[in-house]
Amino acid sequence: ETGVTQTPRHLVMGMTNKKSLKCEQHLGHNAMYWYKQSAKKPLELMFVYNFKEQTENNSVPSRFSPECPNSSHLFLHLHTLQPEDSALYLCASSQDVWRDKTGELFFGEGSRLTVL
Amino acid sequence: GDSVTQMEGPVTLSEEAFLTINCTYTATGYPSLFWYVQYPGEGLQLLLKATKADDKGSNKGFEATYRKETTSFHLEKGSVQVSDSAVYFCALEVGGTSYGKLTFGQGTILTVHP
User: Fold this and answer.
1) In the sheet that B19-21 helps form, which strands lie side by side, from edge to edge?
2) Interface contact A101-B34, CB threshold 8 A
3) Contact with chain A for residue B77, Cβ under 8 A
4) pLDDT per residue over B72-95, tens digit each?
5) In chain A, which residues have their Cβ closer than 8 Å to the Cβ of B104?
6) Closest CB from B4, B93, B107 relative to A103
């Protein structure tokens, strides 16, 4: 596989469930990102990891818990979500946040989350 | 804070028509500017970029010029094709100590009919 792969592509969960989104990149990058895409709103940066270390948490509620075990994998653990958290969650990667000045992020296709 | 404003969509055009999608920004410092495109069922991908004033980014027949005086980065294409149907996102990045933190506009849906 090449590029950035996200699973699952679609997820429906109740407010009391616990689920996880997975992202894997095969590009040899060192930085990974979670973005949230809601209807009629701009993409919102949630988290940034650089060389497995979290470098950005954009005031995201604690019901979203990211995990980056290595530079190729990124998870978003979900628990006690609200219906307004329903959105498309996009994972992206880039070389790294300190030296990569191209601004080019490589995105996955996203995980469509519906919270009932 | 930093922000990007795109023209409201959706935009519907006939094949071979001229396309303009407006984008204006507010930022501290001197941002780099980008257009990303999202084809149906796919992730976003970089279309073009410009890193300083008066730079012109171009790719696949699309162009955009970094206008500092008007804080704009409008996307243009002289003759669109059905395959250009997608969602287009304008974005900026204020580098400094951390790259990769993009601020996006809300996206503009483009539909091109044969």
Assistant:
1) B19-21, B75-77, B62-65, B56-59
2) no
3) no
4) 999 999 999 999 999 999 999 886
5) 42-43
6) B93
| E-strand stretches of chain A | 4-7, 10-13, 18-25, 31-37, 44-50, 53-57, 64-70, 73-79, 87-94, 106-107, 111-115
3-state SS, B52-114, equals CCCCEEEECCEEEECECCCCECCEEECCCCHHHCEEEEEEEECCCCCCCCCEECCCEEEEEEC
More confident residue, A41 or B39: B39
pLDDT in tens, A45-102: 999 998 899 988 889 999 999 999 999 999 999 999 999 999 999 999 988 766 556 6
Nearest to B9 by CA among B18, B19, B1, B17: B19
Residue with tokens 């997975």: A22
Q: How far off is chain B from A5, nearest CA to CA, in Å?
A: 10
How many interchain CB pairs under 8 A, A with B? Answer: 71
Instruction: Specify the pLDDT at position A56.
Output: 87
Q: Write the CA distances from B45 to B38, B49, B91, integer angstroms.
A: 6, 12, 12
**Interchain contact, B46 vs A105, CB within 8 Å:** yes
User: In this structure, which amino acid lies at residue B60?
Assistant: K
Output the six-digit token pair for A61: 């509620």
pLDDT for residue A99:
59
